[in-house]
Amino acid sequence: MIDVKWFLGGGTGAKIFFAKISSYGIDWLEQSIEEVTETEGEVLKHIFDETKDFVDVKLEEICPDALEKIKFCYKDLLSDSHPHRNARIAYDCREILKDFTDAIFKEEYLQDNEITPSRNQTKNKLSYTLRAIKIESETTKKMLETQMDYLSKYFDNLSSFIQRNTHPDRFEVTEEDAKRCVIYTYLVIADVLKLLDKNDNSGFSQEG
């Protein structure tokens, strides 16, 4: 894999050498990098596929509306990229979180004089739900609330830009934006569903 040439080092008689990678070595290295990249890609795909399958099954039980929307978004990503398509995906993902938090929240979770959160208040609905199912880890609760808050603001900002900049030359929701929306939405919903499963709260329904 390496070509080496030896030389005598001046008057000292010491041996020195020059080395460079051979064409065979270059081929071997490129192939190795490609194999590693493919392996890493397969692992990541497997992880996301597992998450997607888990969410799809659970949403079928507790929130069919959200499942229908998120499946449509996922399939839509496979079509040709277009700013209008990307903007629609971003909007739908925000609606999915609203549907999901509507499904898991119950009026009985409120305490004292707390007011029922509006449909748009996804973080509040999540916070009340996590409190009700007694998530002991404050770190876990804060992380999920932060994720939900981040996603809500992300969607709101995208929506604001879309409404203010209707001309394609001024602003476009990119394919990367659309991908992030779908991936983040799946991940956040999966984290919440796993907590509900862990705490044996299987009675959530869209009607409840």
Q: Kindly state the mean pLDDT as a whole number?
A: 77
Task: Indicate the radius of gyration in whole angstroms.
Answer: 26 Å
Total of DSSP H or I helical runs spanning 4+ residues: 6
The ordered H/E elements are EEHHHHHH
Separation of termini?
67 Å
What is the 3D shape? elongated
Tell me the β content: 5-15%
Question: Segments where pLDDT lies below 50 for 5+ residues?
Answer: 201-208
Structural class: mainly alpha
| Strand elements, count | 2
Please give the order of strands in the largest beta sheet.
Answer: 1-2
Share in helix: 55-70%
The largest sheet, given as strand count, sense and whether it forms a barrel, is: 2 strands, antiparallel
Can you describe this structure?
By secondary structure, this protein is mainly α. It is built from six helices and two strands, in the order E-E-H-H-H-H-H-H. The protein has helices at residues 23-62, 64-77, 83-104, 122-132, 138-164, 175-198, and strands at 2-9, 14-21. The protein has a two-stranded antiparallel ribbon with strand order 1-2. Strand 1 (2-9) and strand 2 form a beta hairpin. The longest helix is centred in the first third of the chain and has 40 residues, at 23-62. The chain starts with a strand and ends in a 10-residue tail after the last helix.
